[in-house]
Amino acid sequence: MTQEQPTTTVPDLNSPPFSRLFVLCGKQITAAALEQFFAPYGTVEQCHLVQDQSTGQSKGIGFVKFAKTSEAARALKEADGKHIEPEPKPIKVEIASSTVESKPLDCLRLKVKCAAELDSDAVKTEFGKISAVNSVQLVPDKKSPGNNVAYLTFESFLDAALAYETAKPEHKAKFAKIKPRKVSLESQPQETRGFFRPMTRRRSSALLPPTKLTVLCSSTLTQNQIWRLFDIIPGLMNCSISHDGGSISSATVTYNNTQSAKYAREKLHKFEYPIGEKIVVRDGSE
């Protein structure tokens, strides 16, 4: 009679939302040390370090998954900038990208259902008992006539997380995406329009910071997959990929600062993605 092997439960990385953190921690930190460091902030469901496939050495990139969104929010607030022995440099903690497309500021906004008789002040007062609410926007609920939908923006990620977890079931609270505002030149005063127009004089490429990377990768990868890989480094602004019909594709990845671009090149050059196929990461000027 064969004995059944115990099954390992893998947590859903997207449930609850924003409960997974990305950590830049240095190559000397072990997964056990990382988990021990974050354990005081809540229940750690999963903790692992990204390793170099050829050497097995840690790349100094870790992921920590908590059981609750508020635990991740508290860890983000209190752990960012602290030290984990024996690394002398402070760690950097960010909300990790997931298979659900989201932007960092989306963790500050909730969408809740509420009765039509409640005005914005009443909704703000109700949720303000637990969290710091910056603003409330009410719109009619198209799916439930006679009721409203409230969009609440909070002071911090932790405030939003606590409100999300303590909201009444009838509120059906969930995090809501923040849509970027489009700036129209025609809507601006004549004297300020010049600030919104692109500069026509080009600077020498030698004076521009190296924030753009060129990535050679397998043609099986999509733009979304490349985005998710490079989004583990904070500061990603843009990603585009071109396929020429061959086995190798070229992608352009842009960060909003030189340090992130440099770190991405250092950490992800020759990284196996997918397994067995190494990507090549170069400065965009090369």
TrEMBL record:
Subcellular compartments: Nucleus
Pfam families: RRM_1
PROSITE patterns found in the cross-reference section: RRM
GO cellular component, one term: precatalytic spliceosome
Main location: nucleus
InterPro entries named among the record's database cross-references: Nucleotide-bd_a/b_plait_sf, RBD_domain_sf, RBM45_RRM1, RRM_dom, U1_U11-U12_snRNP_70-35kDa
SMART domains: RRM
Name under which the protein is recorded: RRM domain-containing protein
